[in-house]
Write a structure and sequence with these properties.
By secondary structure, the protein is mostly helical. It has 23 helices and 2 strands. A hairpin with a 5-residue loop joins strand 1 and strand 2. The longest helix has 35 residues. It is globular.
């Protein structure tokens, strides 16, 4: 059956809206019940949703070849971004064994000051999460140490926990090593560095507000002594790694390339190669071990290869360094493939058009579109309890609406992170909310008022949209261009 035959028989436009909505409703029910209640794998639920969407498309008159072509076309567009996802895993593994990430964490921990506990807690977790790309790892190591300091000082534990969560998600939101920072541009249809640059419009003002509040709310007259737990982490890192200024070259290359807008993939490959070089020449690992770290992730057992087999690796340091590797990103790649298998099939059924038409009734301009994205993203977070789905579903629903209004995809990728990634730990029943509360020993609702970095981003997103500031437009060549501050 060719395309003309399909259009003569049945098309999404001539099919009932109810039939077109079946795949979307089925997906939402499967995710809310299957994942939210029974904890079934998201990938399996998305594949089931894709099968249902394919059945609807077949009912509408599409052949299997056309359904398969739609899936392949959608996946083909994501392959460069998927490759970057895999390279991010390699980047983390090579920078870890090369000593770059441990060095950044080491000097970040050195600036901890109990005298300004809230501000220090915020800034240190910002730095660690930015360097490691993990909010959970930052909160589970540095965050726990800071909570111990707060307990010994009789400080406001809820405030310190809020500062830790704020800092942890600052990095999770804009670090090129973060899986959510890589996933958001993939599903929104833009590139990694354009996404990160555009995130600064809302993230930096939120950072300044949070830092100001924590400075004035967090001063005390206590001794400026480094906490004992932090001293142990510093001593262990100093034993395990040779730290020198040359270890900063890989992130400098990435930063330089991002500023100059150089091609992302060659840049990342160069930074990975330099990380492996540091591992062999500076840290004393063999080339085989360095490559294994790049591919499978760093593990503390690798220290034996560098002649450090007798040095004990404490638990907190293990949590920090045992990560990365290209293979660590394969689960994310699988999620992308399953998600876009559903999205490609769904595009044929017309269900997205029906949903967008419903949403579009309340969209009158940029501010209302940003607002609709925020509400949709937050709703998905609350109903599915999953941050990745909160990035995926609004992107599929609203991507074409942004394009039709002449807005670049970076606006969409930024907004779903503002309302999804950093809002997830503020919802008590999400995985992130449960983890942060259990790890820091403070309930989600107690630390919520102090997570200024997290919710201030949403506020600034609406302020900027209403003022038409920091909104990237689509040029004729489809390159995003932010409106000037005087707009």
């Amino acid at each position: 059956m060719n395309t003309s035959d399909v259009s003569q028989t049945s098309t999404p436009e001539t099919s009932s809206a109810g039939l077109a909505l079946v795949p979307i409703i089925s997906m939402l029910l499967l995710l809310m019940v299957g994942y939210g209640v029974y904890g079934l794998p998201i990938e399996a639920l998305l594949l089931t949703s894709a099968i249902i969407a394919a059945g609807v498309a077949w009912k509408q008159g599409y052949s299997w070849d056309e359904i398969q072509e739609a899936i392949v076309e959608r996946l083909a567009k994501t392959l460069p971004a998927v490759f970057i996802l895999v390279l991010v895993g390699g980047l983390i593994g090579s920078w870890m064994i090369g000593g770059t990430i441990p060095m950044l964490v080491y000097y970040g921990l050195k600036v901890i000051s109990p005298e300004y506990l809230l501000l220090t807690s915020f800034l240190v977790t910002c730095l660690v999460s930015l360097c490691t790309g993990t909010s959970w790892g930052s909160a589970g190591t540095v965050g726990v140490a800071l909570m111990g300091v707060a307990g010994g000082m009789d400080a406001n534990l809820a405030a310190v926990a809020g500062a830790v969560v704020s800092g942890a998600y600052f990095g999770d939101k804009i670090s090129p090593l973060s899986d959510s920072t890589n996933f958001a541009p993939v599903v929104a249809g833009t590139d990694l560095y354009s996404h990160i640059q555009h995130m600064l419009w809302t993230t930096l003002p939120a950072f300044l507000v949070a830092a100001t509040v924590f400075f004035f709310a967090g001063t005390s007259g206590v001794s400026n002594e480094t906490p004992e737990k932090v001293i142990h982490i510093l001593a262990n890192l100093d034993q395990l790694f040779t730290l020198n200024i040359f270890l900063l070259l890989p992130p400098v290359i990435i930063l330089f390339g991002a500023i100059r807008k150089l091609p992302t993939i060659p840049l990342m490959l160069a930074a990975i190669a330099l990380g492996i070089f540091n591992a062999v020449v500076v840290q004393g690992f063999s080339l085989i071990t360095a490559l294994n770290s790049m591919l499978g992730g760093f593990n503390s057992s690798m220290f034996a290869d560098a002649g450090l087999g007798q040095v004990d690796v404490i638990k907190d340091v293990m949590t920090l360094v045992n990560r990365g590797g290209m293979s660590s990103m394969l689960s994310m790649v699988l999620l992308v493939f399953c998600a876009f298998s559903f999205a490609g099939t769904l595009a044929l059924t017309g269900g997205l058009k029906v949903m967008v038409n419903v949403l579009a009734k309340g969209i009158k301009g940029t501010a209302s579109l940003i607002g609709a994205t925020i509400v949709t993203t937050f709703t998905v977070v609350c109903t599915t309890s999953d941050g990745k789905l909160a990035l995926l579903i609004p992107s599929e629903l609203l991507r074409d609406t942004y394009k039709s209004m002449g807005l670049a995809a970076t606006n969409l990728s930024r907004t779903i992170e503002d309302a999804g990634t950093v809002i997830e730990p503020l919802v008590p029943w999400t995985n992130a909310g449960v983890f942060m509360a259990a790890t820091l020993g403070v309930s989600t609702l107690d630390y919520l008022p102090w997570t200024i970095q997290n919710y201030a981003g949403v506020i600034f997103a609406m302020i900027l949209a209403s003022a038409n500031i920091g909104i990237a437009k689509l040029k004729d060549d489809n390159a995003p261009q932010a409106t000037p501050a005087t707009a």
